[in-house]
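[job 0412] stage=complex_fold ligand=zinc ion status=START
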Amino acid sequence: MNYIIKNATLVNEGQTFVASVFVSNGKIAKIVKEGKDGPSTGSGTLDPSAQVIDATGKYLIPGIIDEHVHFREPGLTHKADIYTESRAAVAGGVTSYMDMPNTNPHTTTQELLQQKFDLAAEKSLANYSFYLGATNDNLAEIVKTDPKKVCGIKLFMGSSTGNMLVDKNEVLVRLFRESPCLIAAHCEDEQTIHENTVCCKDLAAKGQVVLDASIHPFVRTMEACYKSSFKAVDMAEHFGARLHVLHVSTQRELSLFKNNIPLKDKKITAETCPHYLCFDNHDYEDKSFAIKCNPAIKSHRDKEALLQALHNGLIDTIGTDHAPHLKEEKFTGDYFTSKSGFPSIQHSLDIMANVLPNDLPLLVQLMCHNPAILYQIDRRGFIREGYHADLVLVDMNANHVISDEGEYSKCGWTPYNGIQSHSRVTHTFVNGNLVFENGVFHEQDKGARLCFNR
Ligand SMILES: [Zn+2]
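[job 0412] stage=complex_fold status=DONE, emitting structure tokens
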């Protein structure tokens, strides 16, 4: 099926204008600005049987590219899986995602990586790529990674996620020197976190603190983030590696990044997530373990500084760190047993539209254009003729309250429950296929593997 998206307000490359977009054979065939004589529906290469979608009053943006998700498959599919989470993705206007290796088994070999690509080809509604995880002993696998076909290497920088802890200095040196593609790093210093944990337990035993969610930023502190991010940036600079620091959560880390060179020329870049811009430490009282995540959500000052960094270019991209856990895993235990992470992919557009009111061009830059530039994704992330037709229509006057009832993620709850939103995705196209239409999924066509121009 081909489409004509008529009279949409396009938000693309810093411009906002009314146009009609012709989608043909999976690609953006033609963009005709309002008032210009364009091809009629019957002319030239355009399909006379194309379905016309009246987009008057709605915004058309490039599909969101979420570079940081945990879809939990294989091995943790009681929480989430590629099918359910890719549905939540397209419902939220996300047309491409990059999934992390802390599944079960951990994705630390080329063979396990290929198995994930095979799974996604069968069941993902959105386009996909997968990170290979770095360990203390899989450098031989890492150097085999094809940078044109794989988004990057995930490094848990001194952070213990099972055997994906990389804490041997000689391994880090070789990784930063020899990695054939981008290194995406989770930066929190394990030693600092351990010391803080011991300290909090002592204070709790003396009755001086309560071990509730609000202590999380005192365990996973700003110092833990800075120490680890500093080390990663220092090593990347020294060895000339391509480093992307994930989920930056503190003001202090911002001093490690630059905004005086174009993104395409940067070798060291930074991501933050919607929850660090929407919540701060005051929200632990109300949200409790719902917003427990790693790194921790920190102070109001950190939140304000991160918001500023979106405007001044110190932060390059927004990724969700979508990390579903069941309600039981979050809420039935105590501070130490409550799992860190939560689902968010379905609401990243809603939350970022709240965080950046009346600034859709910046939202599109951070969530669509910049991930495409940063990862050098082939023909996605922009509304350009000849590009893959990953497109999202958004109604920006659809006032509603985000609720657990409307959650498509398998875990069935959202930390954004109760938050007012004014945006609603009405149509999501993936490779020119209309996969989500006013709350209805069309699931016959699957997403494609992302390719990279490296
Ligand atoms: Zn993550």
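Residues 143 and 179 are 6 Å apart (CA to CA).
[job 0412] exit 0
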